[in-house]
Amino acid sequence: KKEKIVMLEKLKEMLKSLESVEGSLDDAFYSLPAYDANIDSRSYLDSARNELYTLKEELEEVKREVELNV
To answer: Residue 51: what are its φ and ψ, rounded to 5°?
Structure first.
């Protein structure tokens, strides 16, 4: 049981870090001017944001499962 509590705390820390990265990526995406020259950069940022959202959702699901079994 103690291991599950430790894992839950680590998951919470990881999610908090991902939220910080998410904020930085969102800031970068929205601060980049929408010029044609920036289309590739905006696409790369948007792709990174989508991958981060997916990872965050997966970790939140694992966290929920751990919480149910603690």
So the answer is: -65, -40
Smallest CA-to-CA distance from 25 within 56, 3, 2, 4 is with 56
Structure confidence by residue, pLDDT tens digits, 23-67: 999 999 999 998 999 999 999 999 999 999 999 999 999 999 999
If you search the block for the tokens 């929408």, which residue do you land on? 34
Strand extents, DSSP E, the chain: none
**What tens digit of pLDDT does each residue of 4-28 get?**
899 999 999 999 999 999 999 999 9
Tokens of 49: 């944001």
Cβ atoms of 69 and 56 within 8 Å: the answer is: no
